[in-house]
Amino acid sequence: MNVWTVYDNTTGEIGFVTTGEQPSGIDTGYVAGQIFTEVVNPSSYKVNLSTLEAELKTNIPAPATLTTTVNTPVSITGLPESSVTVNGGDAVAITDGTLAFTTDLAGDYTLVFTSPIYLDTTTVITVTE
After folding, report:
1. Which pairing describes strands 53-56 and 82-86: parallel, antiparallel, or unpaired?
2. Are residues 73 and 43 in the same domain?
3. Which of 99, 119, 129 is nearest to 111 (CA)?
4. Which of 68, 81, 104, 122 could make an S-S bridge to 74, C-beta 3.0–4.6 Å?
5. Which domain holds residue 102?
6. Cα–Cα separations (whole angstroms), residue 39 to 7, 34, 48, 81, 120
7. pLDDT value of residue 62
8. In the predicted model, is pLDDT for residue 1 greater than 90?
9. Where residue 96 sits, what CATH number does that domain have?
10. Rg for the chain (alpha carbons), in Å?
11. Residues 52 and 94 in one domain
């Protein structure tokens, strides 16, 4: 049985894994290769573009918790190209590797970072008076 992995040839993001004949009509920028020996859930994996082997996704390098005070900015740096949502709101793109956060209201703020080649990663920022 042939197992085919369709993945983005610039990021390693896996679109889908299927069996049978080599998929045709795939989206521009995606290629099909024989990466796995069995069908897997692609949400946990990415393709290493140097070795063309499957790798488990890892967390985005962000702290699990941060603490700050009202109106005092806090920054998270070293982030990959990704997006972030705060308390389930609209997603904001991160393109320069940095997220700056400040608020004038005390409370806990849950940030969820998402990227196609990383696991979703959560940071909780506690803001005090």
Report:
1. unpaired
2. no
3. 99
4. 68
5. 65-128
6. 14, 11, 18, 28, 22
7. 96
8. no
9. 2.60.40.10
10. 18
11. no
Domain co-membership, 49 together with 89: no
The identity of residue 81, as a single letter, is: E
Question: Which letter, b or e, does each residue of 16-28 get, where b requires 16 or more Cβ atoms within 10 Å of its Cβ?
Answer: ebeeeeeeeeeee
Each residue of 32-86: pLDDT tens digit? 999 999 999 999 999 999 999 999 999 999 999 999 999 999 999 999 999 999 9
Task: Write b or e for each residue in 44-59: b if 16 or more Cβ atoms lie within 10 A of its Cβ, otherwise e.
Answer: ebbbeeeeeebeebee
Distance of alpha carbon 54 from alpha carbon 14, whole angstroms: 10
| Total number of domains constituting the chain | 2
CB–CB of 82/111 below 8 Å?
Answer: no
